[in-house]
Design a protein that fits this description.
This protein has 356 residues and is α+β, with helices and mostly antiparallel strands. 22% of the residues lie in helices and 39% in strands. The chain has 7 helices and 22 strands.
């Protein structure tokens, strides 16, 4: 009988302690400001969706045939779905031979493979080879209706410090910033939430904990490499357009003219100051059918410049970046009027954009 009483006393104590702990936790949360509670709840709910991504490369000693993996860089990423797809920046994984992904509160590193990437939008997708017991995909929001002044929260791994939360606001919208591939990424989100090296590929969230962008780059002060309150994120609407294509095709299906453009640096050596010079024309593409020509060379080794595109549907073209931005606004199958210069004479042709 006494043992039963002792048992009941212990159970009662445990139950009472549990109730006290729960009420204490609620009481503790009530001590915080509403904005603080919002930040705490978002971090607790979303941190498991954000991962650390390590870019591993093979290193071989001069007289040693065996190669070892070394970490060439690291950044952040987030879980896209239950199938184990991880989204990050292309520049985080560029040049990697293999990749390691780590989760909050889990010391194990999980191997992942490269699925596809888009350097022009600086987005890449990995897939976990082995999954943890439970994956927590991030919840995508929308970026088309964002407003300056909204609260932002950035979760990532700055300077190797895993799962760090910083908060701020949307400082500006529709920033056009030149990205990793040397072309402009349009519509980027500017935030003053602190973003530092290692945050790249991490999540920018709204006050509901939904993804509104991928933290991608910073403008730093005095060459320090640290945040100066100018962080930029790729809008989630672009992410939602790009990622499914990378998962399905390993690349982004884009409209194009069926030409290759000479790099601006080399075009300048030809004396070109404005326009995009055609380097090569796909003989089976629409530009070839329209009569456009690329750079050629005669039997004496003399080079002849290619046609110079100066206008797309009344949009002036000064370089490759502007040509890519102009064409990227169209869809495969659309027709555009292309104004080009050959032998100092302007000509106009109509070209139907094809898949590239």
């Amino acid at each position: 009988m006494r043992s039963i009483r002792v048992y009941l006393l212990i159970v009662s104590f445990i139950f009472a302690h549990s109730i006290w702990a729960q009420s204490g936790a609620k009481k503790d949360m009530s001590m915080f400001l509403e904005n603080e509670r919002n930040s705490i709840n978002i971090f607790q709910n979303v941190a498991d969706s954000v991962v650390n991504v390590s870019n591993m490369r093979k290193s071989r000693a001069m007289f040693d045939m065996d190669s070892a993996e070394v970490e060439a860089g690291m950044g952040s990423g987030f879980i896209w779905d239950k199938d184990g797809f991880v989204v990050t920046n292309f520049h985080v994984v560029d040049g990697g031979d293999s990749f390691l992904v780590s989760f909050k509160g889990n010391k194990k590193q999980y191997r992942a493979k490269f699925v596809g990437g888009d350097p022009k939008k600086d987005i890449a997708v990995l897939r976990l080879i082995e999954n943890p017991t439970d994956l927590h995909p991030i919840i995508p929001g929308e970026s088309k209706n964002l407003m300056v002044g909204q609260k932002t929260l950035a979760i990532g791994n700055p300077l190797g410090l895993d799962h760090t939360l910083t908060t701020g606001t949307i400082s500006a919208l529709d920033r056009n910033i030149k990205g990793y591939a040397g072309v402009t990424i349009n519509g980027m989100i500017q935030t003053d939430a602190s973003i530092n090296p290692g945050n790249s590929g991490g999540a920018l969230l709204d006050s509901q904990g939904k993804l509104i962008g991928i933290n991608t780059m910073i403008f730093n002060g005095a060459g320090t490499g640290s945040s100066a309150g100018l962080g930029f994120a790729i809008p989630v609407d672009i992410v939602k357009f790009i990622v499914p294509q990378l998962i399905k095709y390993g690349k982004v299906i884009r409209p194009g003219l069926g030409v290759a453009i000479l790099e601006d640096y080399y075009a300048a050596r030809f004396g070109l100051r404005e326009g995009a010079m055609i380097k090569y024309v796909d003989p089976k593409g629409p530009s070839a059918k329209a009569g456009l020509k690329g750079i050629s060379r005669n039997s004496f080794g003399e080079y002849f410049i290619g046609d110079i595109i100066v206008n797309i549907d009344n949009t002036p073209i000064k370089n490759y970046d502007e040509l890519f931005t102009a064409i990227d606004k169209y869809k495969i199958g659309d027709t555009v009027k292309v104004k080009y210069v050959r032998n100092n004479k302007e000509k106009i042709v109509t070209i139907k954009l094809v898949q590239i």
